[in-house]
Amino acid sequence: MQYHLDTIPVWEAMEQESGCPLCYLYRKIEAEEVERSLGGSVMEPDTRIKVNETGICAKHHQQLFMLQNRLGHALLTDSHTKELLKKLDKWEKQADSIGGRGLFGKSSNGQELVEALQKASDGCVVCEAIDSHMKRYLFTFIHLWKTDKAFRAKWESSKGVCMPHGAALLTMAQRELSGDNLKQFTKSILHSIRESLSADEKDLEWFTLKFDYRNQAKPWGNSRNALERTINRLRGLCIQSKEDSSNS
Ligand SMILES: [Zn+2]
Ligand SMILES: [Zn+2]
Question: Which ligand has the shortest distance to the CA of 162?
Answer without folding.
Answer: 1
